[in-house]
Amino acid sequence: MRKVDVVYSALGHHPIKELVDQALIISAIKEAGNIKRIKISEFGFEAERVQLLEPVNSVLEEKIKIREAVRKEGVPFTFVSSNFGATYFLPRLGQVEADGIPEAAVSILGDGNTKVIYVDERDIATYSIKAADDERTLNKTLYIRPPANIYTTYELVSLWETKKNKTLERIDVSEEEILKKIDEFPGQLPFFYAIAYAGFIKGQTTNFEIDPSIGVEASYLYRDVKYTTVEKYMDRFL
Do the beta carbons of residue 141 and residue 63 sit within 8 Å? Predict the structure, then answer.
């Protein structure tokens, strides 16, 4: 810690102990005394502005505890709220169980009209690095909300149909069906359905305004960054 200025934590949550152990990083930063900024591992939803179902809620609770520890110790920080990483949902057109982009039919979670935010993981990294020594992001949350990447599921499906010059059958998946899958499915699927539920059903990536006293928006601060748009991202699957 004494050899660096900025600390990025990219620990995962499988097992959840990895998130919990970030408390050790905070202790080391406090002891070193020279760290100018920490970015803890909570890339995804805004931890303090969402309500998630289990099994995701336990992860969220640990992220909030680490935030509280950072503030308590007075460690300079920038929290990063990056919304949906593009890698998982875009290649599935917003589906959870699909292995890739469907050829004939697509499942639409909810009414298909809820807007969500997709961000290329490389852009998440770029914005996080640019914010490292920016005084405008000190002790604030960096929200990554590229305006060209805010889509409903219907808009995403229509974009793909236009690119492929074909029409997909739309299969509606109700909120009740999703809740049943979260309760009954084995393995990791309930985790991803809980994330999908928060985004596609409850709109928790877009249902609040950024409070400028505690947060800033990345694509507004760093207009020089040519982020990957959803429209461009989908070209790789043609």
Answer: no
DSSP class of residue 237? G
Identity at 40, one-letter amino acid code: I
Q: Give the predicted TM-score (pTM) of the model.
A: 0.94
Express each pLDDT in 106-132 by its tens digit: 999 999 999 999 999 999 999 999 999
Of 213, 99, 237, residue with least CA distance to 156 = 237
The helix or strand, by DSSP H or E, that contains position 156, with its residue range, turns out to be: helix 153-164
User: What average pLDDT does this structure show over 12-39?
Assistant: 94
Q: How far is CA 20 from the centre of its chain?
A: 19
Superfamily in which the 6-237 domain is placed by CATH? UDP-galactose 4-epimerase, domain 1 (3.90.25.10)
Show me where the domains of the chain are located.
Answer: 6-237
Rounded Cα–Cα distance for residues 71 and 59 (Å): 19
Which DSSP string do the residues of 77-144 spell out, in sequence order? Answer: BEEEE--EEHHHHGGGTT-SS-SSS-SSEEEEETTS---EEEE-HHHHHHHHHHTTT-GGGTTEEEE-
DSSP run (H or E) holding 168: none
140 phi-psi bin (left φ>0, alpha ψ -120 to 50, beta other): beta
Find the catalytic residue in 39, 63, 140, 181.
63
Clarify whether 63 is annotated catalytic: yes
